[in-house]
Amino acid sequence: MKKILFFLALLSQFVQAQNLQSFLSVATFNTDQTPFLETYLAINANSLVLINDSNKYYGETDVKIKITSENKIIFQDHYILKSPTFESETNNNIFFIDQQRILLKNGEYSLELVVSDMQADFTKTHAEEIIIAYDNISISDIQLIDGYSITETENILNKSGYTLSPFISNFYPKTINELTYYMETYNTKKIAEGKYVLHTYIESFETGVPLYDFNKMLRKSSSEAESNLLKFNIEKLPTGNYNLVCEIKNINNESLGIKKLFLQRSNSFTATTNHFDLAAISLKGTFVSNMQNKDSLRQFIDYLYPICNAEENIFSQNQLRYDDFELMQKFFFNFWESRNVSNPKLAWLNYLQKVKSVNNKFKYFRIEGYLTDRGRVYLQYGSPNSRNAEIDSKDSRPYEIWHYYKLENQTNKKFVFIDNNRTGEYKLEFSNVNGEESNLEWMQEVEQDENRNSEFRNNYINPR
What we know:
Elements: H1 2-12, E1 22-29, E2 36-44, E3 51-53, E4 56-58, E5 60-69, E6 72-82, E7 95-103, E8 107-117, E9 123-132, E10 138-139, E11 143-150, E12 158-159, E13 162-166, E14 171-172, E15 178-186, E16 195-204, E17 210-221, E18 225-233, E19 240-249, E20 255-265, H2 294-303, H3 310-322, H4 325-339, H5 344-362, H6 373-381, E21 386-390, E22 399-407, E23 410-418, E24 427-431, H7 442-446, H8 455-461
Parallel strand pairs: 14-20
Antiparallel strand pairs: 1-2, 2-7, 3-4, 5-6, 5-8, 8-9, 10-15, 11-13, 11-15, 12-13, 15-18, 16-17, 16-19, 19-20, 21-22, 22-23, 23-24
């Protein structure tokens, strides 16, 4: 539970005792065909007036829970919740968590939870609307998880053999890069095919467009109930508002049940392009609207990899993986419009001519030229100012040295390609361009006799 405690502590490190701070989240389940509600209450100990007991300090809160339906009280409880014991009266910055499990039938409910500091006149009220409907094929609520372990002894935190520590907030700061969540599926035996797909993904809250970098398709066998403990690495999830989505689909890709949970992410970056949001793009009248052959479009998207930034390259590969033709079209048009807003078609056609030229110049057996190292560098950086090629040198393996006078803010930049096996396959062994990976022993890879005053060294030092 270290992550959530650390995060919540950050929220409250300047909070004094005159401000009771508590957070509530809820989730419903139907484990063993018995519907119930779980409440997760987190209280900031540093916001309580602490009691001194033999130089040990602790706080006490009064908690009242009331659940109503159609103005009738269905459940109520009243209990005292005591904090852990502290050595200091201040600056403890520890959230302690209380979890309750309440049996409820299918229906609609209003939850009111009131928490009060027993040593001061400070009270906070939480309210939630609850809907429980587990008669048919369905999904439980999604529970965010801070930590988990295999259950050794039964306790209220236990579900399906795991002890789950709840993540109370729906806000993920940049210090947390893993989103762990738990959910259950029910009554999938009613699916005639006996199989189903659990589709879980993160989507844009504003548009509902899935982020294909955060997408799982899990094939499942039908059952009365099944638990799922899953996670996403969100290190590269930009700042923004999102939904975490879990969906049951049959083998015909028809949705049979869905649940969504709102999330907020704060990161050190935002989406630098709108490739994550393609829903608003209209293809009507664009040059891409005439591209109706999926195989050709897949090839055209693959051509883009040398000139994609890291984000675009991940997204383009996901377009190919998930094979949604309309999204492929929108991505392709958006890519070229971002390069030339006034004439994206011209930008594409000019690039296509370069690709055809590269495929002709640098093809290696069945490997197209744009997929070779020389082809990639040519498409990414353009034609070199000088290109020195040696095929039959006595001093070295076949090589090429490409020299660029200037690349953006870099000057005197070089690429060294080597045909190590003398088969015509030239691999990039060295470059002094920022961001390019290089073999630290690249000189030895080229020279057959490093003691000789090879022409290669002269050509590298004085490119022509």
